[in-house]
Amino acid sequence: MNYGRFAAVYDDLMEDIPYEQYVEWIAETMRSGSVLDLACGTGVLSELMAELGYDVTASDLSADMLTVAQKRFKESALDIPVLQLSMDNLEGLEGFDAVTIAIDSLNYLAKEEQVKKTFEQVYAALKPGGYFFFDVHSVFKIDEIFMHSPFVYDGEDLAYMWHTEKGSAPHSVIHDLTFFVREGWMFERFEETHEQRTFSVDVYKEWLTEAGFTVESVTADFTADAPNDESERIFFRAKK
């Protein structure tokens, strides 16, 4: 997928995400150390962690996302290395105190084998005793909430229509997004298609255990509460 245009509007699309709460969740477990932020996008979470003193390495598969992230880091005078890589191929990376895959990025892996390999690769990249933090869309959100589309946003410089339909695999969706971005006195239109898939909490726990992790907590929706049938975002903390 070409994320060129999408990278430019990504922060507007994600403006309601409480990144600060994500960092607080991590800080409840570890106050310092080295962190590999996988699928970092435009680097918002990486920036916040670095500002709190974590030794952050940011990575993403998209060169366009990393370009935006690097600009962010430079403007904030932060020395954050960036790597272009896929979250299921971390060969040669090791010795991190923590690895993060934030804001449902793991749901972009459509195949079971990719998720399992990602868990194995993350395990290998961590120090003994290191932590793995990630979140995913719940089955309820994929199967029910997203089916309430279309969603429409109309801003001064950006508008978009977001239509979602079921994918071919269980608990998967296809997002079709049409953006209108202000260019001077006109709006330029472009389109994006994104596919996501999730699995049940028990399946994620099983795959984490198979990779060698101890699952320490499973919570929901930026709270300390366990997931219920209508939770939308599931948070996992696992330890090597």
CATH superfamily of the largest domain: Vaccinia Virus protein VP39
**Could you list the spans in which at least 5 consecutive residues all have pLDDT below 50?**
none
- Helix and strand element order: HHEHEHEEHEHEEEEHEE
Largest sheet: 7 strands, mixed
Query: Which topology of the largest domain does CATH recognise?
Result: Rossmann fold
Shape: globular
Q: Could you say which structural class the secondary elements and strand pairing correspond to?
A: alpha/beta
CATH architecture of the largest domain: 3-Layer(aba) Sandwich
Tell me the radius of gyration. 18 Å
Question: Helical region count?
Answer: 7
For the record, the count of structural domains works out to 2
| Strand residue content | 25-35%
**Average of per-residue pLDDT values:** 92
- CATH level 1 class label of the largest domain: Alpha Beta
Please report the distance between the alpha carbons of the first and last residues.
32 Å
Strand order across the largest sheet: 3-2-1-4-5-11-10
Q: Total number of β-strand segments?
A: 11
**What level of helicity do the residues show?**
25-40%
Keywords: Methyltransferase, Transferase
Pfam family, one: Methyltransf_25
GO molecular function, one term: methyltransferase activity
Protein name: Methyltransferase family protein
